[in-house]
Structures are given as C-alpha cells and as structure tokens.
Amino acid sequence: MLSSLPGPQRLGRVRDLLDTGADDVLAQELIALGAANEDSWRYDDAMVLRHLEALPARRRHTLILAIGDRANEPAAVCELLRVIARDLDPDEMPWPVARHLIDAASAQTSGLARDLNVLAVVAERETGAVPPGLIAVMRRTVHYRHDPTLLLPWIAKADGLLNVGEPWAETADADPEVRPMLAHALRVTGPRPLVRWSREARELDLPAGWRLQIHRWFSLVPQPRTIGFRRFDYIDADNLIDAYNATVLRGLLFLLAVTGPGPGDAAAVGALAEYAATKVRGQGARDMVVANAAILTLELIGTGEALDELERLRGARLQPGMISRVVKATSRCRATLGRL
Fold first, then answer.
1. Measured by CB atoms within 10 angstroms of the end CB, which terminus of the chain is less buried, N or C?
2. Which DSSP state fits 286?
C-alpha cells in the first residue's frame, strides 16, 4: 500500500503499478493515500502527482474513472483528480470522466478558470447544460478575484440565482416568486445599503409573507451543507458560509433594514449575526460579510427588540473585533432610542 511506504518509495510503487496495468489497484491505493494526507499532496506525494499528470490523456481518463468510481465522496479526492486532469482536452474527454471531475470541482471553494471551462464545455456538449455545482464553484472563483473572462459567459447561462450546496439557498432559489427580491439583494456591493438601492428596495413588488420567508431562510443557514467541501489541514470549509451566497444574505439583511421593522426581524437577524460572527478554527469569524451586515441591520432596525439582541450579542463568544463592533452598534442604537 502506498500509504504504508516511506515517502521516497511511493513513486516507485506507482510506476510499478502503471507498468503492470493495475489501474484498479493504483486507484484504491491513491484514495487511501489521499485519506492519509488529507488530499494535500506535498513533498514526496507531490512527485506522485507530477508523474500521473504526465501520463497520456487516455491513461489519465482510465485512472480518473477508477478513482471516481471507488471514492466514498468527491471531497476526499478532489485535489487528486484536479491535478491528474490538468490540461486535458475537452474534445477527447468522455462524459463519465467529466462527471467525476465536476463532482470533485464542486467540492472546491474555488478552482482554476481553464479547468472549470473545460468541464463546462464537456457538460454542455453532453447534457445541454452546466451542472449547478459547477456554476457554484465558478461563482466563488470569480468572487475570489480570479480572472473571470472564461467563467462569466457560463455563469450568465445559469438558471439559479444562488449557489447550490446550502439548504437555505436551495430553498430560496426554488421559489420563482422571490426571484426579484433575490436579484435585488445581489445588487448590494458595499458594507452599507446605498440610498438608491434602498429606494428601489422599498418599491419592489414583494410576495405575501416575504419577511417570514427571509426569517425562515436565516434559520436554515446553520444547517449542514448538501455538497461537502474539501477539507484543509488548517480549516474545515464546511463550517463557513458560501462566499457568493454570503453576499445575498447581506442584501436580504439590508432589505429588512430599509423597509421598516417587522415582527420577528430582530430575533431572526440576531440569531444570524451570532452564527456568522462566531469564531471557527483557522478562520476567525465564520463570515465577516454576513456578521457585519447583521450587526448593522440590528442598528438600523433601531427598535427595543433590536437593542436587546445587540445586548445579547455583547455576551456571546465572538471574535474580539466583532465584539467591538457590537458595542459601538449598541451605543448608537441606545442613543437613537433615547436610552443613554
């Protein structure tokens, strides 16, 4: 087994298995090695991947199929498959191979634009559409300031407004009546709602019960992801909020803030603020965008209930920087209410 061999001997074992055509055995041993190194291929393991990456395209297709068919979950082998598939030609890529690579790419927080473009080309050729999971990683890749040139045309073809992988987002995206609300939430680009955006928000033709819908979506945010992320040695990305969806949550928070307070607003926003501002290992606050927007929203709501939520957050186990923001927001909210 590769994982039981000393690092310098692993490449020799890989070469022997390739020479004998034992791709099934090699796939199983690579999966086991990926489990041992947490799919982080460094030092001698990096030499193994470089050798696999240099194989002819058809041999790599066979190996990707063997790994994908045997892996327990795509997130466990996504970096392994990504490197093996590097610079493959979409014209020669069979759909079963692309399907495994798409599942693996969907488990990445971001990817390389060229690799994602290749997978989109194959998916559209074979199925007529780009899978939502692939669109999601494209959006996150653009959000993280990678070159968007190859990805934006594919993103523009997407039917859904939100990224799959989070129960709240999948629930919201499934309701056609709320699309104008979600689209307007996506237009927020800064840390505060602008005057024009706020005016347009108040002019939206919102469906009946829209506030309760937003409250319900906020309550679903802590639920486990439906598409697990690749685990890193310093952080569990499943504990974070999808970076693209976080911008939508910010817009929905501001929508509550600029349309006047409603029953239950403060409690729903306060719970989301606490969840987003809680410290997670290797990251700090779970999501700064959502946490800051939620704290500001409580301040802008400016009711006694909102002040109570801010006071409650002062006693929560938050990041020191987040506590400072809560204290300042509490002081301003108290001043607005005349409770100096």
1. C
2. S
| pLDDT per residue rounded down to tens, the chain (340 residues) | 888 988 889 999 999 999 999 999 999 999 999 999 888 898 999 999 999 999 999 999 999 999 999 998 898 899 999 999 999 999 999 999 999 999 999 999 999 999 999 999 999 999 999 999 999 999 999 999 888 999 999 999 999 999 999 999 999 999 999 999 999 999 998 999 999 999 999 999 999 999 999 999 999 999 999 999 987 767 889 999 999 999 999 999 999 999 989 999 999 999 999 999 998 888 889 999 999 999 999 999 999 999 999 999 998 888 788 889 999 999 999 998 886 5
Say how many C-beta atoms besides its own lie within 10 A of residue 198's C-beta. 17
Last residue of a domain, one of 156, 191, 206: 156
Of 200, 294, 219, residue with least CA distance to 252: 294
Decide: helix, strand or coil at residue 20: coil
Distance CA 318, CA 273 (A): 10
- The residue among 156, 179, 206 that closes a domain is 156
E strands, 27-115, in order: none
Q: Do residue 204 and residue 152 come from a single domain?
A: no
Query: Could you count the other beta carbons within 10 Å of the beta carbon of residue 147?
Result: 12
Q: Are residues 79 and 203 in the same domain?
A: no
Q: What is the largest CA-CA distance in the chain?
A: 81
Q: Is 114 inside a domain boundary? A: yes
Residue in this structure with the two tokens 């470089």, named with its chain if needed: 50
The residue type at 120: A
